[in-house]
């Protein structure tokens, strides 16, 4: 009886070691896959804050939580879809990414068009009164737009992560993707939550007795409007850049090599270090995204006019 008990303990110890090794493999695989998707994650973090601009401060964190929840649902659906597709229909991934890249190019170009309209006086920025009186319907539209953009960026993140997972086991690949999804969501929306509440932190510091704290608080309050303006511009550029890059890369995947070959030709024509090549590729990707986005915005506007008629 005693020998059977100790044999059971030995079996438990072996299983525990195997489980610990599997956890190590999952963590290591998630770290490697996440590193490859870092560029898209940074773009995601830059894009998201623009959706909470013009929101009443009391509603900022609830809206960010709703977007975070939507992002987690997006990633769960993406993982559930791409795991079977990676086995039975991997050829569909470039087409899905072309659709996603087109959506990002459309969103970025539409924002640029709104800026042009605002500069011409055709549109105006929301006033304080309009922000405070913003309805639940407005918030739903904001959350819906943010979650749709997140769906495209999350798809790109998860597909890049899947492409860089070396694990042979289907279960291990699934565990790595789940961990990547959670890590990326916490990082992006945790950073966004910190950013949008920095002005509140500044007001709190201004009420402290220390001169250092008050000076720091004044600095936060004065800096945050400029930070959000910069993030808005970075977010739009990121959508055009990532959307254009996705389009160029996946057009080549489906057999249309001309646009990507043109980009490579320009890169080779301009000698310089790796950073110069990267800047040229990024600029041309953003221009390509803007051009294709302009076509989509024009088509959407024409369709809207036809429907109104």
Short description:
By secondary structure, this protein is an all-alpha fold. It has 11 helices and no strands.
Q: What would the keywords be for this entry?
A:
disordered N terminus, globular, 85% helix, single chain, 309 residues, mainly alpha
Describe the structure.
The protein is globular. Residues 1-6, 8-24, 33-39 and 127-132 have low confidence and may be disordered. Helix 1 crosses helix 7 (170-196) and helix 4 (93-119) packs across helix 6. It has one domain (2-308). The protein has helices at 2-36, 38-47, 57-88, 93-119, 128-132, 136-163, 170-196, 198-206, 211-253, 258-269, 274-308. The chain is 85% helix and 0% strand.
